[in-house]
Amino acid sequence: MSPARQQLPLPFPHQPVYDPRDVLPGACNEAALAWLERTADWPDRRLAIWGGEGCGKTHLLRAWAARTGAVLLDGRGLATPDALPDSGAVAIDDAEIRPSDGEPDGKPDRPAAETTLLHVLNTARDRGLFLLLSGRRAPARWTVALPDLSSRLRAITAVEILPPDDGFLRLLFGVLLADRQLVVPDPVREWLLRRLPRSPAALRDAVARLDRLSLADGRRVTRALASRLLPAPASASEGTEEESAVDLPLSGESWEDRGDPAADGVAPSTTTGLV
């Protein structure tokens, strides 16, 4: 499509939908889901779930908050324990204190942020609240200067959300596309999955960019459009050495399962019907 006919996407931010019914179970989050189902068994009524960017921490935390009626708080904007309820439960998303918090030069001693978190933990304990935290690292690994805060963080039971397998990534890809109401043919999905990095964060970014490209071009998603998501070597013509380096089969699949790579590079779809 010529530049003159392209649409200009309106700058409306996409709001993810964290429906508890859309939580995807898998080997990567099996332990976290089991702990979230046994709130009464949490040691000292506290639990932390942690893992890499985009692994589903926020979705699991919000699903637990919806099921238990917990007050949901954002750790980035937490300035005082006054927001904690008098009873019940509280979930604090993105609670981890990072090197840049509280100090513009990134010094590790962020007194304001650390003091606030310490007061939150103490208040939750005094009120008998069930407390769920999320972060990219286990609380015991958070870099803090206050000895009292450090000891409390080390005592929190922490459950890791593991890197997902290929089957989970395929399901997640379908959910992310449906969330943005993007219709992508199954062969194009499989073609992209073989070339995108194997991480939830990469899939989320790819779907967001695909949404913008489709809207700007005003046409359906094709492999030609999808190829614009990839670096030049990955979107080169079929059969080149560059593409062979990135066009790897998914786990449990042989090259024979994919057919002739020189023909079209598209394997039969195995995408499940979640969308």
Provide a quick synopsis of the model:
This protein is α/β, with parallel strands linked by helices and 275 residues long. The protein is built from ten helices and five strands, in the order H-E-H-E-E-H-E-H-E-H-H-H-H-H-H. The chain has two domains: 29-160, 3-Layer(aba) Sandwich (Rossmann fold), CATH 3.40.50; 164-258, Helicase, Ruva Protein, domain 3 (Orthogonal Bundle), CATH 1.10.8.
Give the topology, please.
Layout: H1 30-36, E1 46-50, H2 57-68, E2 71-74, E3 89-93, H3 111-126, E4 130-135, H4 147-154, E5 158-160, H5 166-179, H6 186-193, H7 200-217, H8 223-226, H9 241-246, H10 255-258
Parallel strand pairs: 1-4, 1-5, 2-3, 3-4
Helix pairs in contact: 5-7
Please count the beta strands (DSSP E, at least 2 residues each): 5
CATH topology of the largest domain: Rossmann fold
Output the helix-strand order. Answer: HEHEEHEHEHHHHHH
In CATH, what is the class of the largest domain?
Alpha Beta
Distance between the termini: 28 Å
Q: Assign the structural class, choosing from mainly alpha, mainly beta, alpha/beta, alpha+beta, or little secondary structure.
A: alpha/beta
| Global mean pLDDT | 79
The poorly predicted ranges are 102-109, 234-275
Query: Helix content range of the residues, please?
Result: 25-40%
